[in-house]
Amino acid sequence: MKAVIVVFPGTNRERDMAIALERATGRKPVMLFHRETALPSGTDLVVLPGGFSYGDYLRCGAMAAQSPIMREVARFAARGGHVLGVCNGFQILCEAGLLPGALLRNATLRFLSMDCHMRVERAGTPFTAQWQQGAVFRAPMAHGDGNFFCDDETHRHLVDQNLVAFRYCTPAGEVTDAANRNGARDNIAGILSPNLRVCGLMPHPEDLVDPLMGGTDGLPMFTSLAEAAVAA
Amino acid sequence: MKVKVTVMPKTGVLDPQGKAIGHALEGLGFAGIGEVRAGKVIELELTETDPAKAKAAAEEMARRLLANTVIESFRVEVA
What we know:
The structure holds 2 protein chains of 2 kinds. Chain A has helices at residues 14-25, 68-78, 88-95, 152-160, 219-231, and strands spanning 3-7, 30-33, 45-48, 82-86, 102-104, 112-120, 136-143, 147-149, 164-169, 188-192, 198-201. By secondary structure, chain A is an alpha/beta fold. By secondary structure, chain B is of the alpha+beta class.
């Protein structure tokens, strides 16, 4: 699988992402600077990693969403390419209109730096194929603006079309208010595009892909993507 | 020509920052504070000299970048 990680000024989780992708695919991903106007030929997957692109100026992800490479990423997505956005990458996908909704300031106003648990709400996608439906996994999160918001109509669409990928839950898999630390609407941690090729989520599965990191809970996302690329 | 774009969280969108400011004001002893909402003001210096055109341009800028209309509303005033 040929994976490309887009690096914006202020991106800081690209190396973690590269470790996860290399571990799952055996191939080093390409790091692409935001000023580039083309993706390498044969790109299977574009990843927008976490960080604080453009210092979160104006709104998280707002500046990055307008950068030259994002026009190409939008075209790639429109052609059915796989795009993953984690944390700031999720915010950028929403700001760019590649995913619906927006990420508001955490309801508590606190920056959250802790592990969370998520339940797989939609297995069988390029991002979740290696999990069972309803599987619970752990992932670190580190964000100040992860409070997923969308209007009622968008929420209905996400639920009716089964486009909620992950919900915040307890370690036992219960979707509760207490497990919803950032206040996201309907405990939504991650969503999918209608063609299931674009996925954004706030927590960091790439930071749990090796026993040395304390676990491999996040690895299925990357092995799923590696398989999807082989199948495509 | 100076144009002022005011961006505010939409009605119904949680504004924890506004809430926190309200609580802090009450903590300082200010009484009678209702809802507090916090937004931002962006001032633009435009070379356009026609107020209607300047307003239209700023509105387009707000829709494309300055505001995220999923969560924010905006108002454009030409000085």
